[in-house]
Design a protein that fits this description.
Mean pLDDT: 88
Shape: globular
Number of strands: 5
Radius of gyration: 22 Å
Low-confidence stretches: 23-31, 218-227
Order of helices and strands: HEHEHEHHEHEH
Strand content: 5-15%
CATH topology of the largest domain: Rossmann fold
Length: 227
């Protein structure tokens, strides 16, 4: 009887281990198959000056979960990133993560450094085209420059985001820092980066455009004939 009980106990433990392995495999497969949102940005999205968990991109992942969306957010943002750097990194990111949606938050450093406007526009346009070719929809988060750059330069810079944000498969946000940039206590001492208190507002600014794309991620992809 003792031998029989011992044999049954061993068989039960083997079955339990098998079930546990199957559950772990199923959970890993579910994570791997979760649709992804790729955020490609600069210090604004890299949570500069604060913990990553305080940044708007991390808050985005939390909101998606609360709203019942299965998407996993991949934050590929780097402080100091330019549109040229983003364009160089994007093809590998698209192949690695196969995102349903790409959020582009780039261009601010180009403008602050006075880089050629045409280059900034072309880089963003190429990133949009690459994303669309991989069947990803795009959210383009716009930036504005301080007034000391002059009206001609600042207005031309803002038009880049307005024009590209109107392309097929793209939803634009004219100014990610709307309601933040001029508010006391919501900008860090450098006057460029938002504080941790401002991060929920950044998310609120980006959320409607992202929601618009999430509702359309299974629509047929329309490719623009432009650059």
């Amino acid at each position: 009887m003792v031998a029989v009980n011992s044999s049954l106990a061993c068989a039960f433990m083997r079955l339990l281990k098998l079930l546990l392995c199957m559950l772990l495999i199923a959970a890993a497969a579910a994570r791997a198959e979760a649709p992804r949102i790729l955020v490609l940005g600069d210090s604004i999205s890299a949570a500069y000056g604060m913990e990553l968990e305080q940044g708007w991109v991390h808050l985005l992942q939390q909101r998606l979960q609360l709203e019942g969306y299965p998407h996993r957010v991949v934050n590929a943002s780097i402080s100091g990133e330019t549109t040229a750097g983003g364009l160089a990194r994007l093809p590998e990111l698209l192949q690695t993560h196969a995102p349903d949606v790409v959020i582009l938050e780039l261009g601010g450093n180009d403008g602050l450094r006075g880089l050629a406007m045409r280059e900034t526009r072309d880089n963003l346009a190429r990133m949009i085209a690459l994303s669309r070719q991989e069947n990803a929809r795009v959210v383009l988060l716009g930036m504005k420059l301080p007034p000391n750059y002059g009206p001609v330069y600042t207005e031309a810079f803002e038009r880049i985001f307005v024009e590209l944000g109107a392309r097929p498969g793209v939803t634009g946000v004219p100014f990610l820092l709307d309601g933040v940039a001029l508010e006391p206590g919501l900008m860090q001492a450098d006057g460029i980066h938002p504080t941790s208190r401002a991060q929920p507002q950044l998310l609120d600014n980006a959320w409607p455009a992202l929601l618009h794309q999430l509702e359309r991620t299974h629509d047929p992809v329309m490719h623009s004939s432009g650059d």
